[in-house]
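Protein record

Derive tokens from sequence
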Amino acid sequence: MSVSCFAIWNICSKLSTDRGRSKNNKTSQILQKNKNKLFGLSINPVRLQSIRDERRSNSGYASIDQCRKEVKLAEDMFVQNQVPFLDTSHTSIEEIAGRILNKGSIKRRY
């Protein structure tokens, strides 16, 4: 999740400007405008730490505290902005796609 949700967060943050509005307010406005297109992906912090540890062993990036912090921040953002999300810790890409289609009441196009 952390990667996906932070990708959305970073995109929105980069689109934000400091033209008299707070960055978080502008980010929230961008999220709300495109809310029907958003779906968050989460991951268990321990699973995220395991993945990151393979990339950068013994780094702050791979620490369990950092992973917990990022996952909580992302999930809080989803909840605050009423963006549906699901835990993808042990889920295949096909299952994730199916769940998104079902939760989003999206019709498949063939």
Summary: The radius of gyration is 15 Å. Residues 1-6, 10-21 have pLDDT under 50 and may be disordered. Residues 2-103 form one domain. The longest strand covers residues 40-42.
